[in-house]
Write a structure and sequence with these properties.
The protein has 277 residues and is α/β, with parallel strands linked by helices. It has 9 helices and 10 strands. Helix content is 36%, strand content 15%. The strands form 2 sheets. It has a 6-stranded mixed beta sheet, with helices on both faces. The chain has a 4-stranded mixed beta sheet with strand order 4-6-8-9.
């Protein structure tokens, strides 16, 4: 059963802050490589629910404490005799990332250091990946007798198939550097270690000027295309595009452009404008 989490109190291994329409999530176990524990599962479920449901939050940034590790996966020393096993459907088991929690707001992953195994959840399900030049990516599931599946499928969507398989099958013996990940298109922006968060925040601030509902529906169109054939993806995108026509932001954006002013967006995704006959 999911624990009730009070986000106003200190959290297990995570810092969560909100200001100026941006949520900042920091994995905060630097002495343990910012690794994940079972209690943190409920914490992340609560955090992503708050990001999703708080209309004041328009963009989220997730990063790790320190410069050495972003997240080194599950802390196996914190697990019980059954390891990380949860013999339940996927929809009831995995809530680490924004996509797994139905968050349709831009999420920027600011990778400050090494990412291993379960830490890849946050990377592959982010919208934009900014990485420190000293960061690296590695998967160690097979080294500890686990199947590299969920995060690895995400890798195969963002990397050439051979690279995703190389990471998966070579395990800890292969590290994908941030520079190589940038060359292959998984990392969207490289930053010097001291400028990583500044770079991510600059991106977030740019997004704050956009219609929240238009961004959400654009995300749904693009992410949804990964699960559909081309024709079905186009139909889904067309449906989302038409849905936006009835939202106040659709008219406000055009009016603001013509009147040469900043638009005033309606954060309510269910808002509608009056159609003239």
């Amino acid at each position: 059963m999911t624990r009730a989490i009070d986000l106003s109190q200190p959290l297990d291994g995570v810092q969560y802050q909100k200001s100026n329409h941006v949520a900042r999530i920091t994995l905060n176990r630097p002495e343990k490589g910012n690794s994940l524990t079972r209690p943190m599962e409920d914490v992340f479920r609560a955090i992503w629910a708050d990001v999703r449901d708080d209309p004041s939050v328009r963009v989220a940034i997730i990063t790790g404490a320190g410069e050495r590790h972003f997240c080194t996966g599950f802390d196996l020393s914190s697990m019980g005799s059954d390891g990380v096993a949860q013999n339940v459907p996927l929809s009831e088991a995995v809530f680490w990332s924004p996509r797994k929690n139905r968050v349709w707001k831009p999420v920027i992953c600011a990778v400050n250091g090494l990412v291993v195994g379960g830490g890849l959840h946050f990377v592959v399900d982010a919208d934009i990946i900014v990485a420190s030049e000293s960061a690296a990516f590695m998967d160690s599931h097979v080294n500890v007798g686990m199947v590299g599946a969920l995060e690895n499928i995400g890798l195969a969507k963002r990397l050439p198939l051979g690279t995703a398989l190389r990471m998966t099958l070579m395990g800890k013996h292969y590290r994908l550097t941030a520079q190589r990940a940038f060359q292959l298109g998984m990392v969207d922006e490289l930053a010097k270690p001291g400028e990583l968060l500044k770079t991510a925040e600059e991106m977030a601030n740019v997004m704050l000027s956009n219609s929240p509902t238009a961004m959400a529906r654009s995300q749904q169109a693009i992410w949804g295309s990964l699960e559909r054939g081309y024709h079905d993806a186009m139909e889904h995108g067309w449906a989302l595009l038409r849905l936006q026509w009835s939202h106040p932001d659709f008219l406000e954006g055009a009016r603001a452009f013509v009147e040469k002013r900043e638009p005033s967006w309606d954060p309510n995704p269910d808002a509608t404008h009056e159609r003239k006959p």
